[in-house]
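Q: Got a minute? One more chain.
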Amino acid sequence: MSLSQLLAMRATVPKSLSMDLSPIALNAWNPGLRAEVAEQEATISIMDVIGYDWWTGEGTTAKRIAGALRSIGAEKDVTVYINSPGGDLFEGLAIHNLLKDHKGKVTVKIIGVAASAASVIAVAGDDVQIARAAFYMVHNSWVVAAGNRHELRDVADWLEPFDYAMADLYAERSGEDIKAMQKLMDAESWLAGAQSVELGLADSIIDIKTSEGDADAQASALKKMEVALARAGLSRSDRRSLMNEFKTSMPGATGSGMPGATGNTAGNNAGLNVQLGGLTSLAANLSASLNS
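A: Always. Here it is, folded:
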């Protein structure tokens, strides 16, 4: 099955299924990590969840990447920096195709993690470079599903071509047998820089200067909270419900439920941290009860 055929399957997503982030990948991701980029370099930064990021209203979408490539120019070389926990596989495949179709040279630099759907994007590079302490994470499609045994079997069958397509992309990039890639995916493998080069998923190790970006305090806190709730075993829909309630109670929140400017950043952040701590404790208690 071709990648275009897989993308067309978005319309056939089973009603009982929702794609979700791996809690392990989300926990390993440092959302504030940024690369120091040369001014003359034409760059695209993929530093967020793949797909629409509901807590910031942004995220890394195929539409955004297509716009960036148009702005850079079809014939120009581009460098793509990646630090992402993954996300929507459909968006990841679409972005992969956009980078593959770009006429200029595409250099990918993995500076943190290229997990799940982000790893699919990474292997689209003509030249893939990875920091020694950065990681690929490859696994089978991660979803949340509900239903009876017949519906769950249908979900497993529906997922199979996506897992095969990912393994095929990794095999094409690395030169390894597809079965070897499937074995890595079955084990949910974390591949550090040197191992990624050894396998052929990257071409070289790079020394790259990184810094902790001044990410929006509320967005950063929400992402940390997402990790805590995911580790507690809550589904994405349940997490969103709790997070929406939390956002309306944030310091400076307006009647629309969106954070508002109050002029007291330090006070807001302190209150936010208190609330975050309370919800993180709640998540820990939920996790303990689920695992008991």
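A: Residues 252-272 have pLDDT under 50 and may be disordered.
Q: Perfect, thanks.
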